[in-house]
Amino acid sequence: MSNLNDIYQEMILDHNKSPRNFKQMENPTQHLEGYNPLCGDKLTIYLCIKDDIIEDISFTGSGCAISKASASIMTDKLKGKTKLEAEAVFHAAHDMLTGKIKDKDDILKQGNLAALSGISQFPMRIKCATLAWHTLHAALNGAHQTISTE
């Protein structure tokens, strides 16, 4: 498991240093801001949804390595998914990040999201990791006001 943790740590650092889909989208069909007042993380999620499919997803903002890596992994995971599939991924990610999924095999089924599984051991970092996910979830459900982790 130690080698796996090293790989996960490297993946988080890579997604923080070179975040995927880190750009302001032109003409999104939906966008929403998220804010974590506890540590100051701020981000905006941009979505282009056509025929119930997330054709494009991106984010901008600033925050800690966990926050940025989580948003980057999320955008990679959700591009091309339907809204219903994205909601299912949201719930699986949330359960994993908050420690509700503990079985190693169930965690490994999450693909690249598994890199964030260790976050559940650090309660102060859970909000950093879930900020992008809660913002996405609210955007998919038509929210228009900034989402806060508090």
If you had to describe this structure to a student in words, what would you say it looks like?
By secondary structure, the chain is of the alpha+beta class. It has a single domain, classed as Sufe protein. Chain: A, CATH 3.90.1010. The chain is built from five helices and four strands. A four-stranded mixed sheet has the order 3-2-1-4, covered by helices on one side. Strand 1 (30-36) and strand 2 form a beta hairpin. Helix 1 crosses helix 2, helix 2 (65-78) packs parallel to helix 5 (123-140) and helix 3 packs antiparallel against helix 5. The chain starts with a helix and ends with a strand. The model has no long low-confidence stretch (mean pLDDT 92).
Choose one word for the global shape: globular
Strand content: 15-25%
Q: According to CATH, what is the class? A: Alpha Beta
Kindly name the structural category. alpha+beta
Summarize the helix and strand pattern as letters.
HEEEHHHHE
Mean pLDDT: 92
Give the count of structural domains. 1
Poorly predicted parts? none
In whole angstroms, the N-to-C terminal distance is 33 Å
Total number of beta strands: 4
Rg, please? 14 Å
Major sheet attributes: 4 strands, mixed
Layout of helices and strands:
Blueprint (H helix, E strand, L loop, with lengths): L1 H16 L12 E7 L4 E10 L2 E10 L2 H14 L4 H15 L6 H5 L14 H18 L6 E2 L2
Parallel strand pairs: 1-4
Antiparallel strand pairs: 1-2, 2-3
